[in-house]
Fold this sequence. Notes:
By secondary structure, the protein is α/β, with parallel strands linked by helices.
Amino acid sequence: MANKKRALITGITGQDGSYLAEFLLAQGYEVIGMIRRSSTVNFERIKHIQDDVTLTTGDLLDEVSIINLLRESRPAEVYNLAAQSFVQTSWGQPVFTGETTALGVTRMLDAIRIVDPDIRFYQASSSEMFGKVVEVPQRETTPFYPRSPYGVAKVYGHWITVNYRESYGMHASSGILFNHESPRRGLEFVTRKITNAVARIKLGLDNELRLGNLEAQRDWGFAGDYVKAMWLMLQQDQPDDFVVSTGQTQSVRRFCELAFGHVDLDYSKYVVLDERFMRPAEVDLLVGDSTKARTTLGWEPETSFEKLVTMMVEADLALLKGQR
Ligand code: NDP
Ligand code: GDR
């Protein structure tokens, strides 16, 4: 145990945190997960590895808790995945989103600077920073033009990471990850909302799916593939920023078509447009150029869009059948 490399993951109870914890355990790491206090247990995504990781309370809103956590756990690597991550919510809670998703990054970076500036740091940056279409495909050099309080907060988180790298020589890297999904995706995100509805409709539990903008285009990959890129960034001699994406873009409509089609249903008979799911400002088209990650890190996505959709529909069908 003493010789194991130790990593701290914030956001371990989230989609990416659970896949990253699995990945790091498989690499032989000792994994510490920072969890925030809640009135009910929310270990759904990590219950299968709960005995293999150490869970410790802390909150990105509370720098003292982070300093104490770092002092006690002394990790070699910190993966900062915690955030208010739902774009739609960021209009309703813009200040909270800024506190967590933007200033939370500074709290963590500053805690590292105070406790041990040699700790390597990964920041979960996002393709939402590109926002309005300025260049296609988007790459590391594409100017940011965020379109939501979430996107604005992520731009802050990205630049403060660059700033701590340049100011203090810290090994701080920012992964600009495009949308990545999985059966563990939260039910409010469009992909999981669709695959869950497909399963419910197929099993006779529902008869419609209410959605917003069907024409938005996203570069969707599989979360299990993307966590490897996070780890690879922290294994490099030099810290840097990397776009992580598949290079393919698909519309929400196309996602519906494939997901419903997988169970022999016609999406147009079930999908109902609902204004409540339209956004005040939309990100119309995201497609990433991950050449730098592919050449420097040797990373590439392994799961096709079709396989991802099928995996998610099958998982939701199995889940619902299991619940019955
Ligand atoms: P999730 O929403 O699934 O998980 C977010 C995690 O952050 C949860 O574990 C949540 O804890 C935790 N968290 C939220 N607020 C705090 C806080 N104040 N203190 C401590 N923990 C907190 O997100 P994903 O796993 O999908 O994404 C991981 C990161 O990657 C996020 O930063 C997201 O913005 C970013 N990202 C995600 C992309 C994607 O497509 N998934 C693409 C690009 C970037 P709890 O369970 O208690 O709520
Ligand atoms: P996104 O993901 O905003 O890209 O952020 P989301 O799945 O929420 O939306 C994708 C696109 O689908 C459109 N859409 C709907 N979205 C939701 N959630 N619900 C609907 O009913 C609906 N109808 C249409 C949206 O308008 C949008 O265009 C995700 C998050 O994981 C972020 O944390 C991350 O940074 C980015 O991906 C990259």
